[in-house]
Amino acid sequence: KNQFAYFLFPCIISCIILLVRNKKMIFKILYCACILIFLFNMVLSASRTGLIVTILFLGLYLLFNDRMKISQKIVIIAILAVLGAIGIFALYRINPELLLNKLLRVDSIKTLTGRTKIWNVALDVANENTGTVLFGAGRFKGVEAIQNANMKVTQFHNTYIEFFVSGGIIEVLYFISIYIFVLVKMIKSKKLDKKYKIIYVCMYVAYFIYMFSESLGRFSIGGSDCLGMIFFVTIPLLHANIIPECPKLEENNKGEY
User: Fold this and answer.
1) Could you count the other beta carbons within 10 Å of the beta carbon of residue 29?
2) Residues 9/50, Cβ–Cβ less than 8 Å
3) Res 245: pLDDT
């Protein structure tokens, strides 16, 4: 469920980019419908982290985009709050088990659904000595320690801890520097329109928070790893270096904009 929610997260971001890019109302309606469908699927996936991070991204974009007036933003936030409250109440009436036991899971909030136990075991492995702190103990050793603790998982459910256990502080700094480089490159780009920069900044804020609860962004051959590498590194870099959007050529076709 968490991996499915992770796939839906870039889908929603892509719809926002297309929604901003296209001016025809028919396409705007289509992309809004897609966003609602993806959000509905995310709710059914019962991934709390994915849902919270997606709402955070949408909320940040709503607050910081300059395409709407403040009064419009307040109205939209109020409408969404009312619709959200109605949706939660309706879900409680229709399927209280889905809301209480699968979405909220109150009984497991203290341990973050067992994540804190996984993190403690992984950190014990990484803090074994100075060498493991600097250069890591290796991912397989960390996974082995978790499984020896009778936890049937192969991920640490925290990207930063994943990097720390695998390659120590050196790997943590290495991967963070990659994302910082992409973010700075994108922000400083003179070719990228401001409307896209706002989307990407909101995306990265949500994504960096997402990393605290899931193992994302590893440069590996897995499906979710490839998605993270392409969508959160390659595409922003390519987009930051594209030819800026231009009006259509004049009828005389002189080649001037």
Assistant:
1) 11
2) yes
3) 55
